[in-house]
Amino acid sequence: MWVLLALSLWTLAVAIERALFWWGLSRGAPTPPLSHVRRGLRGFEVTVTGAPLLGILGTVSGMMQTLGVLGEQAAPDPLSISGGVSKALLTTAAGLIVSLLALVADHIFGGLAEDFEERETETP
């Protein structure tokens, strides 16, 4: 879960940086090199792929923990089982949320980068 938190904070930081970059460019900032236009986009793509996998990993470990409780007790407490399942599903939901936010950011900033590159490479 901590890795997902770090990944979401990184995604937020890059999204803010990209938003400020494009805002400054719209306000008349000097034209940047093309390499700066796509900065951070690859990280969004990695987050879109990796966050759900990390969520599933958390789900698997949570379910293993819950099944371990079932195996240790003759008559397991339903609250301990439901708490473990809830924790497991929470990591899946968190992974999907982080992934969706990164997907939206990737599409927005990737589209802006493509439009910018097309304008810059057009011959007059």
Summarize the structure.
This protein is an all-alpha fold and 124 residues long. It is 85% helix and 0% strand. It contains 4 helices and no strands.
Provide an overview of this structure.
With 124 residues, the protein is mainly alpha-helical. It has one domain. The chain is built from 4 helices and no strands. Helix 1 runs antiparallel to helix 3, helix 1 packs parallel to helix 4 and helix 3 runs antiparallel to helix 4. The chain is rod-shaped, with a radius of gyration of 21 Å.
When the domains are counted, the total is 1
Give start-end ranges of low-pLDDT stretches.
none
Give the helix tally.
4
Tell how many strands the DSSP assignment holds.
0
What's the end-to-end separation, in Å? 52 Å
Look at the structure and give the mean pLDDT.
89
Strand content range: under 5%
Overall shape: it is rod-shaped
> How much helical structure, as a percent, in the residues?
over 70%
How is the biggest beta sheet arranged?
Answer: none
Alpha-beta classification: mainly alpha
Radius of gyration: 21 Å
One letter per element, helices H and strands E, the order comes to HHHH
